[in-house]
Q: What sequence folds into this?
């Protein structure tokens, strides 16, 4: 018995130390070294020990208080009403919602025959809790949660968040504290990291990438320099109240959320009122399915008893209300082992390191491969084969290796030299054995094998056949893999020599699919010059640039022969693109590929507008498309506008000539109205496309903003 107590005491001490350390990293430094799920596991282990041996539950145990310290540099704010946390339902299956309802009913002393309790279900945002204090309708203070009693005054940083109203709409009670979550959208997080990587690649010393949107948001909120903070776009959702004076708080939580939305706060529209547990289960399931499509991370849903009166009756246990519970989803970050680093060869020979992982269930699927970006990134994070690593998979973003868990690095791994891509693959392309090179100023190593490298040929074919290039329906990874590996197709143009017999030889290729593919290949021959150019896979030539080049040169011969100076004359083409195009066509093998493709019968209609009589009424005009049009897809509308000589821009500015707006148009429509830009519907756009150029010009002058 004593020995079991002794073991438990020892483990509890260990867990105290570990949890305190991680809590410090998480809350104070914003640099956690283990994922939340791992922390939760350790935390629950300690809770279990303390439940079995109550004498071990010391006052300073991490289970007994909410951690978080005030950073030097921010003023301390004493919360007028403590900021609580929510109990987490550990059962992540539907039964979790049932268990909550059962508990609530028991605590309210309800009998089975009593009517169901109404709940409000909402999302559990993965960000940072904030308390916003409004006095007479004006934002006077923003504070972090801190330890729940006192937080940090982060008003100046929070003021830069556009979603947070500085002044309330409508009612202006003497005191109103609104609580909610500040977070970063996944796209903003990816863009931020992308920019950081570019800065680091360019030699910037003090720049870092961030591991996940939550940390990015926390870092921005607690950044001492609000100008730095402003560079990280943050968002906000309101979900509760702090101190209130002189306001009649709605009787239900759902009513409160509506009232907050009316005051100008962003409130997630994913929320539902449910009678009893069934609706909660449905909400949990629906949001679980929608999770990947949301533009931000959620780690679960929250259920709250809707009636404030019942909430008051239920009250609190320690620091958690009995009337709310968090029901989680599988974690989007997990730890696993990095078994190896594979090097994959891309379309233009770019060598990309890919992590081979001990399969791990993360973000709802089993992940065994994850991107490592490039060699510099691996070295900067000091990721080594054999390391325990954190893997993140959220939304439809490809899984990433966030970094190593250094505490778990074994001595063998610590003795390894930092990762070097060149030595890792013996200086040779893993697909064709050609030497590899890394040019000055570039982050990626590349295979020098060109068309002799089967991996490059495969990627080149897949790209050429893709939907946005010449589009060969049914030509997927597996078929291309076989065609190249079996030596049936050795270069891109050979694709057009494929007949039914050859295709029918392939594994898992029936007669019907073989015929279909022959037809699809045949059909792809009739294409457009921009699609063909894009399909060639010239570095830095995306769809837009391909269109610009096609429009300017009109035919492929002129483009192939163009000098850098001539290329620079193309609108929107700068030195990087010009050099890349020039270098591409300097290579004899690329010219041969173009010749062979054309000899195979690839054709496109002459480019309008390079001929003098073309109908290009929108030349020199810029349009923006927003919302859903009744019949045209956005891509269709764009193509029509571009074919008429116009440009389609992604944002509204003074230079915009027209905004084409459909259903559910949002901020762009507001902006256009603000700037006095003329707004067209689909019919209006069609009229413009059909009109003679001088009519369009006159219309554009009329449409110009008064200023
Ligand atoms: S309500 C009394 N609602 O989760 C309940 N919290 O552990 C107070 N959170 O600190 C919180 N989404 O940072 C509430 N819809 C939501 C939430 C939410 C995320 C966070 C918040 C809080 C933590 C609770």
A:
């Amino acid at each position: 018995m004593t020995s079991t107590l002794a073991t438990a005491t020892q483990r509890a001490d260990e867990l105290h130390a570990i949890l305190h350390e991680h809590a410090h990293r998480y809350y104070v430094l914003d640099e956690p070294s283990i994922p939340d799920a791992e922390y939760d596991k350790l935390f629950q282990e300690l809770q279990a020990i303390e439940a079995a041996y109550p004498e071990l539950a010391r006052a300073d145990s991490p289970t007994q208080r909410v951690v978080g310290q005030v950073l030097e540099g921010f003023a301390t704010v004493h919360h007028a009403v403590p900021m609580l946390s929510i109990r987490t339902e550990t059962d992540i299956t539907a039964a979790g919602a049932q268990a909550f309802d059962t508990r609530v009913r028991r605590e309210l002393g309800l009998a089975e025959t009593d009517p169901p309790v109404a709940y409000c279900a909402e999302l559990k945002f993965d960000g940072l809790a904030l308390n916003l204090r409004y006095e007479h309708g004006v934002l006077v203070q923003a504070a972090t949660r801190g330890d729940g009693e006192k937080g940090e005054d982060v008003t100046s940083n929070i003021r830069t968040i556009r979603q947070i109203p500085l002044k309330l709409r409508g009612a202006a009670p003497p005191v109103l504290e609104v609580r909610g979550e500040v977070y970063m959208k996944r796209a903003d997080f990816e863009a931020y990291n992308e920019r950081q990587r570019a800065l680091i690649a360019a030699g910037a010393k003090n720049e870092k990438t961030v591991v996940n949107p939550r940390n990015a948001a926390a870092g921005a909120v607690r950044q001492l320099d609000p100008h730095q903070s402003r560079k990280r776009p943050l968002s906000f959702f309101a979900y509760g109240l702090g101190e209130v004076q002189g306001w009649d708080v709605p009787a239900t939580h759902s009513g409160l959320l509506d009232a907050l939305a009316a005051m100008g706060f962003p409130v997630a529209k994913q929320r539902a009122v449910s009678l009893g547990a069934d609706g909660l289960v449905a909400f949990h399931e629906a949001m679980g399915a929608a999770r990947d499509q949301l533009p931000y991370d959620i780690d679960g849903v929250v259920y709250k008893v809707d009636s404030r009166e019942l909430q008051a009756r239920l009250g609190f246990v320690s620091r958690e209300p009995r009337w709310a519970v968090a029901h989680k989803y599988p974690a989007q970050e997990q730890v696993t082992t990095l078994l190896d680093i594979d090097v994959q060869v891309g379309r233009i020979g770019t060598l990309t390191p890919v992590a081979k992982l001990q399969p791990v269930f993360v973000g709802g699927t089993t992940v065994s491969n994850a991107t490592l970006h490039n060699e510099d990134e691996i070295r900067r994070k000091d990721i080594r084969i054999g390391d325990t690593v954190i893997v993140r998979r959220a939304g439809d973003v490809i899984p990433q290796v966030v970094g190593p868990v250094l505490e778990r690095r074994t001595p063998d791994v610590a003795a390894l030299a930092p990762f070097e891509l060149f030595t890792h693959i013996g200086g040779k392309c893993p697909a064709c054995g050609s030497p590899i090179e890394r040019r000055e100023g570039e982050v990626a190593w590349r295979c020098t094998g060109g068309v002799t490298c089967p991996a490059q040929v495969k990627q080149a074919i897949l790209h050429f056949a893709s939907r946005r290039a010449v589009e060969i329906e049914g030509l997927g990874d597996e078929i291309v893999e076989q065609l190249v590996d079996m030596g049936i197709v050795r270069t891109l143009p050979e694709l057009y020599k494929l007949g039914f017999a050859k295709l029918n030889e392939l594994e898992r290729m029936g007669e019907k699919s073989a015929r279909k593919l022959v037809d699809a290949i045949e059909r792809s021959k009739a294409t457009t010059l921009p699609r063909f150019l894009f399909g060639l896979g010239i570095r830095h030539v995306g769809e837009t640039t391909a269109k610009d080049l096609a429009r300017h040169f009109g035919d492929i011969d002129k483009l192939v022969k163009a000098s850098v100076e001539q290329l620079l004359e193309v609108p929107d083409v700068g030195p990087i693109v010009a050099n890349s195009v020039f270098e591409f066509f300097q290579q004899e093998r690329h010219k041969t590929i173009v010749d062979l493709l054309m000899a195979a019968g690839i054709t496109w209609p002459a480019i309008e507008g390079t001929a003098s009589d073309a109908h290009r009424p929108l030349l020199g005009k810029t349009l923006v498309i927003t919302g859903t049009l009744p019949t045209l897809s956005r891509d269709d509308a764009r193509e029509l506008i571009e074919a008429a000589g116009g440009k389609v821009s992604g944002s509204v500015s003074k230079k915009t000539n027209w905004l084409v707006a459909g259903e559910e148009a949002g901020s762009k429509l507001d902006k256009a109205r603000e700037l006095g830009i003329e707004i067209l519907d689909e019919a209006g756009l069609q009229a413009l496309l059909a009109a003679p150029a001088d009519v369009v010009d006159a219309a554009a002058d009329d449409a110009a903003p008064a200023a």
Summary: The chain has six domains: 3-64, 118-328, 333-437, 449-523, 529-599, 613-703. The radius of gyration is 30 Å.
